[in-house]
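Hi Y.,

Following your request, here is the sequence exactly as I used it, all 62 residues.
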Amino acid sequence: MIPIEMKNIISIVWNNWLKPQQKYSVLLFDSTATASEIALMLNGEWDGCNGVIVASGDEVTA
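Below is the corresponding structure, written out as C-alpha cells. Let me know if you'd prefer a different format.
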C-alpha cells in the first residue's frame, strides 16, 4: 500500500509531466513604436525592436 503523501507526490509529478507546454507566438510589426504599444495592449513581451512575444490563447488569435 502506498502512503497518501506519496500518492499526492506521484499525482503532482504525473500531472505536470502530462501538462501541455505553453505555446508562444511572435508578432512582427513595421515599427518599434507600434510593437511597443501592441505589447502593452496584449500583455506581451516587447523584444526592443519590432517583435512582440505573446502566449497563444487559441489558434484563432495566433
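The chain is about 40% helix and 20% strand.

Thanks again,
Q.
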